[in-house]
Amino acid sequence: MCSETRWYEASRHRYRLNEERDHNAHHSGCEIEYLKLRRRVMFELWWVNGEEVELITVVCISCGFVCYSPRPDRKDLIAKYIFLRDHEKLGAAHAGGRRTCRLLSARSKYLREAILGLTKQAPHKVLDVGGGDGRLLQPFLELGSECFLVDFNQSPISGVCRLGTELEEIPFGMTFDVIICSHVLEHVAEPMVMLRRARDLLSPNGLLYIEVPLEVWKGVPIASDPVTHINFFTKKVLEAALLLAGLSPVMSEKRVAPYGEYYIRVVSIMAKRGNERQADNKGVEEAIGFLRPSFWENVCRLFVNIKIDVFLNCVPTIKSLVAKFTYKNRCVVAIDATEERNV
After folding, report:
1. What's the CATH number where 256 sits?
2. Domain count of the chain?
3. What residues make up the domain containing 67?
4. FRET pair for 262, CA 20 to 30 Å: which of 48, 74, 136, 246?
5. How confident is the model at residue 93 (pLDDT cuts 50, 70, 90)?
6. pTM of the full predicted structure?
């Protein structure tokens, strides 16, 4: 992100091609299928002809950016999305259920109010980068804005114009009053390239909205799945990234927000073109603090996690437990039937 080459090693994780037994012990049936597909990405697309790989979680000692090594490149990630597009529906917006729709509506409402609070009027052109089928743009369609989408999903909702799969496919000279990059930066091979390209696509008074999950709140979550997210940000690290890309944050916050059918911790930042201050290295302290918390910080996390997991996410948590129990019972019945046939 900052072109530094010195890293602080945080953890190591080993992965095997076949880990069904481990998955069965800790995940429901749907989660197992999700993880199996990502194991196939690892060993059929990224690290071919191997049965085991070790990934090292590292922190940049200059800016605090967190990722892992060895790292998939741009071609690897394109191959991943083409593969997943053929096997499952991409993006949290595709999840069904009334709760998901309700939380998506709350997410869209927050985005609309945050942007209108700064622009004071409906934006003329809005671009959603990596927005699935463009459902997050619905409030802007209702305001009369022209809405555009860049994503691997080829079937946007009515009223949204798809411009391609990547920012490079957008016609030369086209600019936007608002660019939304919500839960995307954690997926890309070159986050700084994406930020600089987004900056160039902003109109002179345009706004870039960035939202990423604050996953290092609980440590880097790649123990079971290193395929979905490959970049991990804190608030200060993301602010530094925007400054390095020639953007100035005008609104920045950490909050608990809906995504899919869950509430999670996120970082939300609004930025405009220009660089009014220099990036600092406070992100290093913040990132390592999350990965190496003190006793009291762990206590604080416990109470916040209880609030999120027990009170805000109680419905999907119960559903997940029921699904896990049902899946295990189905496995037991299948094993018993097999043994009976063998006898």
Report:
1. 3.40.50.150
2. 1
3. 7-312
4. 74
5. very low
6. 0.86
